[in-house]
Input
Amino acid sequence: MDKVKTGISGLDEMLNGGIPVGRHVALYGGPGAGKTSFCFEYLYQGAKLGEPGLYVSLEETPEDIIENMKSTFPLLTDVPQLIKEKKLELIKPDKLDLEEVANILEDRITTNGIKRAVIDSATMIRLSFKSETEYRQTLFEFLSLLRNLDVTSITVVEANTATRSEMHYDIEHFVMDGIINLYNLDREDRRVRALEIFKMRGTDHSRDLVPFKVTPSGIKVYTGEKVF
Ligand SMILES: Nc1ncnc2c1ncn2[C@@H]1O[C@H](COP(=O)(O)OP(=O)(O)O)[C@@H](O)[C@H]1O
Ligand SMILES: [Mg+2]
Output
């Protein structure tokens, strides 16, 4: 099976080459876990490989994300150029609506040949639904729309906990092809960032909980190391 290289240091090794092409992954984590940084780098690395990507932000404006990423990843100095060349595009739709998101994706696939997409976040959409059942239904429909599109996506899902034992599994976990969990684990005197690939249909993968860092040049996943 063909893989999409995330380009995130250490992660493709854990994924046996990358995310299987055309699959849809949920990225789960609490506030400040690094979800936006992770997704931004996924698109950035794709853009560098000549695979254009679209960041659909449902909360922050594209300007805010670009500004924040500039301070998080100061060494990725070619971001403005990649944006100019339309290899990296960020958009905030007018409505909190999954059908609208699917339409935007379809349009950018046709007009710009995007190969990677990020939706940040499903939780924003979920909050706009009155009932869980309605949201579940809509999410299923959205996934079936996505499955007809030639794109490999990551959808952010907000967790309301940073700890591993308190993670519970939401609707998104059952419908998505893959789940990557980001943690900001509480240690006595500090917090430790850790990552695990919880599920990934279509490929063998590491099941270890491993440390990671957000560095000025990108995220570094320390494959094979233990979390202390
Ligand atoms: N310039 C920076 N230097 C170091 N760490 C940073 C910088 N900017 C952001 N971070 C870290 O990244 C975290 C936010 O990452 P982000 O990707 O926005 O998380 P999320 O989307 O999960 O809320 C912050 O909590 C902070 O710890
Ligand atoms: Mg975020």
Summary: Residues 35-36 surround magnesium ion (ligand 2) (CB under 6 Å).
